Amino acid sequence: MSDLHETAATGTEARAVAVRRRLTRPLIWVAAAALAIAVPFYLEGFWLQTGLFAMSAAVGAIGINLLTGSTGQLSMGHAFFLAIGAYAYVYFSADPEQGARQALGGLGLPTPLAAVLAVLTAGVAGGLFSPIAGRLKGAYLGIATLALIFLGQHLLFNATAVTGGYNGRAVPPLHLFGLTFADTPALVVMDVPFGALERLWFLGLLLVLGAAAFARGVLRGRPGRAMNTIRDHEIAAGVMGVPVARYRAGVFVLSSMYGGLAGVMLALVFQRTVPDYFGVFLSLDYLAMIVIGGLGSIGGAVIGAVFVSMLPQLLTRYSDSLPLIAEPGSGGVSPAEAARILYGAAVVSVVLFLPGGLAGLFARLRAGGGGRTGRPARARGLRFSSSPTPTPSPDTRS
Amino acid sequence: MGKFGIRTGAATMAALALALSACASGKATGGEPATGGDGVKTGPGVTADKISLGMLTDLTGPYASLGKSITQAQQLYFEQVNAAGGVCGRKLEGIVRDHGYDAQKAVAAYTEIAPKSAAITQFIGSPMVTALKQRIEGDRLLTIPMAWATSLLGGQAIQVTGTTYDIDMINGVDFLAKEKGIKSGDKIGHLYFEGDYGQSALNGTKYAAEKLGLTVVEQKIKATDQDMSAQVSAFKDAGVKAIMVSVGPKQAASLVGVAVAKGMDIPFVASNSAYSPQLLGTPAAPALLKDYYIMTAAAPMSSPLPAIKKLVADYQAKYAGQPVDSGVGAGYSAAVIVGDALKQACASKDLSREGIVKAHRSQPSWEGGFGTPMDFSQIDRPASRASFITKPDKAAVGGAVVFKEAAISDLAKDYQVPVG
Amino acid sequence: MITFLELLVNGISIGAVYALIALGFVVIFKATEVVNFAHASLLLAGGYLVARLQPLTGFWAALVIGVAAAAVVGAAIEFLIIRRANVASHSVLAIVTIGVDIVLTTELTRQIGTEILALGDPWGDSVVHLGEVTVAETRIVALFTAAALITLFLLAFKYTGWGIAMRATAEDSETAALMGIRLGRVSLSAWAVAGALAAVAAVFLCVFPTPGLDRGTSLAAIKAFPAAILGGLDSTTGALVGGLIVGVTEALMTGYQNQLAFLGRGIGDVAPFLVMVVILLLRPAGLFGIRETARV
């Protein structure tokens, strides 16, 4: 936090803070990494799967946060790009099969190549939409992208040779460096049986880190500043020489590719693609994630994704020990309903009371906990304030 | 950046240390079948005094009414069995998970409860079952889907009860030809849902139509469509003499209401999911009472069969004031099927998953008193080919009465069911 | 030909209902620049109240109460949430309305549970014969009600003080405020009006050709999104035209499904969205929308 070094503390105090920071930060990282690595050795499949869904959601949410949070473009069509990613991976990697009722096409490419191509395909699909994505802004684009959802559903159900129709298709497991990401062949690491979920866990972690790092690079560089300017003041951006339409279209493509990657991850975890899943509610979930987590921030996207994907699972799992929530089937507010109400309410209350989302809250708590009082609730929520001053890039930490 | 190397190194070390101690983690012990004190081999979901049964249902989504009835009926069965001493000296316990008709939640719920279930007594939603088909087969977990699509046939572990949708439609077309004057050269309409429910049913209609020289006029809709005016116009324009209905109750009501209002005096033959007694409280009631028939493999709740009479009485006693719809029968009989498989498995002293599936598949003519006998020994054929023809009735329990007793039509007898 | 006419009339009449919903969006958008995704839940709330009250009070009283209640719900959303959210971007407000929608819809569907609620309307399942074309009476009523309401609004926008305040706000809210227009009142009234319109639309979506109100009813509101945007989010005329285009497209594509089988079955649901995309490609602000121009 270079800006803080300069402004807040002086002299020895500053040095002490800096030293403490230098010592504690790596420690936190080490602890987090160790925890992440240890998880598959301890937690049962249910938690791993929930975690993997959250990781896939995190990648998708980072993507849509670039578009909506950082550039101010609303998209209700994110689920479409997840679908493209998932189905393209299956199509590229599966061998063609001649079923009894329907023939399924496939290219039988090596699976890592298929995964990369699937992400690119999602990007191309986003690019095809760019005549619209570049010209429309804000809510207009939001509704226009609804068309993608309905078109996508229509294609998924009707282009049976590629998608398998309503049945969906089995997802070929990924083979990478001689390791197969499936339950067979059996693998036992330190006495713990390593099935598909355990193996995918590590891959998922790497992909989330990679996706976050890349987005960070984008946001901190020139493109990030241009995107924020478009969001905050489109005309000013144009005057300063930012090609607004090209940027909008470009960010849309990038966000589509993130969606595609999330789709590939999801397909690998699901082990089967199901067309119904990629509907309008999935898109709404993503919008809820980035608002709850914190618009425009990468950490926020990840936190929001974890929150939205874990909440229903947690409530279902512990419904018997939570007050007000009824056991499924016994009448009263069921866990699934409670989860939906909670997360709807979370979206509203974050905007009302928590500018900056959960990420902003954590940042403030951390600042408070680090012995530094009086740090203004500066915001990572600048995008929420109506101040007309130019917005600094969203992440000024070093 | 040098620091970064040290950090990662440290992280790896710490992780390795943690991982090494993983031998102490609960996951390290596998869930292999063991043999209990009573000489019965047990598997996941079976302990010395308890058998856990999973229920993957929809209590908050579009099939909530069905899900609630099924779940309550199955809970009722567990209670009755437990009151009578349980199975194999063990109490039955249901684990309910609501997926709200969402595939991701269903997959998550399956991952959670599969390791601790001996069987799954209900799994609502063919898209959800399809999504998990491979894993269910891999886990050898006896599962009763509450969906009757042909795509669910062909596996050892998944047992579709009764007829599949296509068999019902074949019997229905046969009924139209024999009693409603539909003859070669006529056109019949089929309104169906996108998805395997509609598609399976359509396959049956197409097969029967081809055999009888009829032409099928197709209209596909989505579950979100509400108003069937345009579809009726198209059917009327084509001059159909009868309409097959494989959609939800609401769309069926709209279809029949509009058609009758437009003066189409034709019979309607519906799949068992295209009717709900609640429709009789809506303006569509007179049209439904007129010439609407529902094909079903299970006897309606108003049937005089002793098993069903007892079920209705018990259910009403336990859940007073709640509707007794077809879900009650479907849920209860599915629970009985699983219960019987457990009893069989107990007799051969093998309550492992493998043992339960094997015991279940050893029954070529199971008869629970719910209408038609079922053959569980063939994995690539429907358990039954006989359909009841029922008719809506305001006064009857469950809102439907038997119009014709269960029978297998000649067309259905020779029909090769597409599998998978 | 008769089929065509029948489909056309059906399409126009359901299009009129979509137009009512779309008009609600447009009114809110004009007054507050917010795209209200909670519209579906307003619709459900209005319909639900009418359905629940009608056995007690009769249809007409229930209708009045339901419409008034939906207006109150709309106003409450504005007063309690939209007004208090200090947000620069209207996209964020749009997401907030999604949150509101999720909460309201979840609770309402929980209340509706598994029932199909009949509305007890006086038209029942009677149909009108216009030559050989048959149309449900409810649809004729819907058409005339929608036409009357929309005309009323067009006139109100032009001639009443409220309408002028609304138009001035849409034009330039800061200047309007300086001229003494109370922005809060304008936006509150816009939300109330939108709620009332949604409740009226809900009634027509739940009567005859459909058996009643159930948990899926709110999904019909999704079809009003393309209606609102292809007409132009800031144009009341656009809402009317957009609604009609969506209704007619949907009806014709569905009715001629067999002739259009090469496009895949079930194209009727997608068609309105495809039309919307094509129109947006040609006119990014919609058919009647005013293209935003800015001077620096």
UniProtKB/TrEMBL annotation, chain B:
Q: Does the keyword Signal apply?
A: yes
Record-linked Pfam families: Peripla_BP_6 (PF13458)
* Keyword rRNA-binding found: no
Which PROSITE patterns does this one have?
PROKAR_LIPOPROTEIN
**Which residue windows are coiled coil?**
none
Family membership noted in the UniProt record: Belongs to the leucine-binding protein family.
Protein name, as recorded:
ABC transporter substrate-binding protein
Automatic annotation (TrEMBL), chain C:
Indicate where this protein is primarily found. membrane
What is the top-level taxon of the source organism? Bacteria
Membrane topology (UniProt): Multi-pass membrane protein
Q: Which UniProt keywords apply?
A: Amino-acid transport, Cell membrane, Membrane, Transmembrane, Transmembrane helix, Transport
One Pfam family matching this protein: BPD_transp_2
* CDD domains given in the database record: TM_PBP1_LivH_like
State which residue ranges cross the membrane.
7-28, 58-81, 87-104, 140-157, 188-208, 220-248, 260-282
Q: Which InterPro entries is this protein grouped with?
A: ABC_transp_permease, BCAA_transport_permease
Cell compartments where the protein resides: Cell membrane
The protein in question is named: Branched-chain amino acid ABC transporter permease
